[in-house]
From TrEMBL:
Bilayer-crossing regions: none
Pfam families named in the record: BTB, MATH
Positions of the BTB domain: 163-222
Protein name from the UniProt record: BTB domain-containing protein
Source organism of this protein record: Caenorhabditis nigoni
């Protein structure tokens, strides 16, 4: 099967603690599926200490296939390679570039780096995309929401023994660490380490917060739960409220690489929570002027000026 209709997507990942990356060691982002193939990006440190970003593509397990692509690479939002072409097939599943150490400062590489691939598929053969059954998909998501259960307890004996603060949310008590929360949240840092009266208390009530949403927020914060479409909105809302920038970044990575949410929902979330990479991805993937118009909010002041400029630039590229 040949499908020559152009398809575009973007995949990115933030690689932290680069000084601990050993020679000949690789690190990868999440595997995501686009247009019937599985994609992931990674970085590899060679014998000279240079970084080698690469993109991997895995097609069907059986049969021949080919995916002819043109892609751009951004390193920490700075263009690194533009218009590079590569054809993936069963014998060529990876394409690699490299960034010499001497260029690290040029791309703002220190202890962390963001690698972003913008991929355009210009031709595919041998891959048939599965049709989406919308009703089954919605039923599955509804079932997932109903089945969500705790993956970490914040009120058992282990939590109580290691805690130095109790947060009362609704009728639930969460036994937590001041230091850990303060490290990840500006709200809790001010609450626990500032000059507020609460800083001396051993139990603090958090008002107007749903305990189930707070449970999900903590589970992701502690690395015990993956972000999902059915929990992302609540986690984003609390991350914004608590000033948890790392959590917002993790939600942004999920929305860019794994979420099945409609494009409009992603764009609205990106604008509301100032997730610039997601905003750029959504604009990059807009195909028509009608789609652009559908993204514009009723109150134009909800969008920053730079977003308006990007939307205008995008509209001018559409014939």
């Amino acid at each position: 099967m040949s499908n020559n209709k152009e398809k575009e997507f973007m995949i990115s990942h933030v690689y932290n603690n680069l000084s601990s990356l050993k020679i000949f060691e690789s690190r990868y982002g999440d595997t995501v599926e686009h247009f019937g193939a599985k994609w992931k990006i990674g970085v590899f440190k060679d014998s000279d200490g240079d970084l080698r970003p690469h993109i991997d593509c895995e097609g069907p397990q059986t049969g021949n296939y080919s995916i002819n692509t043109v892609y751009d690479i951004l390193v920490s939002e700075v263009p690194f390679r533009t218009g590079w072409q590569f054809e993936f097939d069963p014998n060529q599943k990876r394409y690699e570039n490299y960034i010499p150490k001497n260029d690290y400062s040029k791309y703002g590489i220190d202890e962390s780096v963001t690698i972003e691939y913008r991929v355009k598929i210009i031709e595919m053969t041998g891959i048939e995309q599965k049709p989406v059954n919308i009703q089954n998909d919605m039923a599955k998501k509804s079932s997932e929401v109903e089945k969500i259960q705790k993956s970490m307890n914040f009120d058992d004996d282990v939590a109580k023994e290691s805690s130095d603060i109790v947060l009362l949310v609704g009728d639930h008590k969460f036994y937590l660490s001041k230091l850990y929360l303060s490290f990840h949240s500006t709200y809790f840092k001010s609450l626990f380490l500032g000059k507020f009266a609460e800083s001396q208390k051993s139990e603090i009530e958090l008002k107007d917060i749903d305990p189930d949403d707070f449970q999900k927020f903590l589970e992701v914060l502690y690395g015990e739960r993956c972000i999902e479409d059915c929990t992302c909105s609540q986690i984003l809302s609390l991350s914004d409220y608590f000033g948890a920038k790392t959590m917002i970044r993790r939600c942004e990575e999920f929305l860019i690489n794994a979420s099945k949410k409609p494009q409009k929902e992603k764009f609205e979330a990106a604008v509301q929570y100032k997730m610039d990479k997601l905003t750029k991805k959504c604009i990059f993937e807009m195909k028509t002027r009608e789609e652009i118009r559908s993204m514009i909010p009723e109150d134009p002041n909800e969008m920053d000026k730079w977003i308006w400029k990007e939307l205008l630039k995008k509209s001018l590229t559409i014939s």
